[in-house]
Amino acid sequence: MKVELLDYTKNALEMLIFCKGTRLAGNETIEDIIEWPDKKKIEHYSYMKDTIKSQFEFVHFTFLLTGVSRAFTHQLVRTRTQSYAEQSLRAVDVRNAPVYNFGLCDDYDNSVTNSIAAYENMVDSGIPIQDARGVLPIDITTNIIVGTNLRTLHDTAKVRLCTRTQGEYQMVFREMKKRVAEIYPIFDDFIAVECVSSGLCAFPRYTECPVQVATVKVTPHQKLAIESLWNITNHVANPIAKNGRT
Predict the structure, then answer these.
(1) Does residue 10 sit in the same domain as residue 120?
(2) Structure confidence by residue, pLDDT tens digits, 89-134
(3) Do residues 40 and 152 both lie within one domain?
(4) Has residue 79 been placed in a domain?
């Protein structure tokens, strides 16, 4: 498995600040913001992380994932706010493609070997690849390009970096997070699993997680108290833009 960062938004931090400033009637151009001292940029970024996340959608990343299983990509493409271009099984002869979990156990390896042999025999006898592909193991490896934005990475990380997530998915997402942090270290803590980000467990019923013991516990009584108070509250915020903030 390999994760490469093919392309990304240049001056991403400045783009975030510019988009936030546009929303709040800021007068700075992106060229002005590029000239700001780093301390000022970091102050604005720290403020933005606790506001509406719409400006984070303007920072884009394109990854190439190679040698990943189709079992994994079937899960990956369920994130509908990303773009994908995956190697075709309909048109590409994959008889020589590795299988992700080969070596797992004898029963698994024998089944994989037999299914690929059947695929080869069918293709060699003239059966179209698009029909023969049905016997291939789901762990046959593939390549996929993933286009995403920083907001989606932030939202997806909350659950896909969790120990409850399938192992290959965790590994791939950790590598995606690393590739982003290599270019923009400031985004590393923004792409974080839920328990690290908020202190709360995303899947409290999954008690086998060794990290869960350190998370914040919200009791049913506390939840009921919060709901009761919310039900009788009619407070409405009145934000006013000033110096790029509200």
Answers:
(1) no
(2) 999 999 999 999 999 999 999 999 999 999 999 999 999 999 999 9
(3) yes
(4) yes
Q: Taking the CA atoms of 181, 187, 189 and 192 in sequence, report the sign of the dihedral they define.
A: negative
Report the catalytic residues: 160
79 and 102 both lie in a single domain: no
Provide the whole-model pTM: 0.92
| Range(s) of the domain holding residue 126 | 97-135
Residue type for position 127: I
CA distance 178 to 191: 10
DSSP 3-state assignment of 38? Answer: helix
Q: What domain count does the chain have?
A: 2
pLDDT digits (tens, 9 = 90+) for 213-230: 999 999 999 999 999 999
Burial 25-46 (b: 16+ CB within 10 A, else e): ebebeeeebeebeeeebeebbe
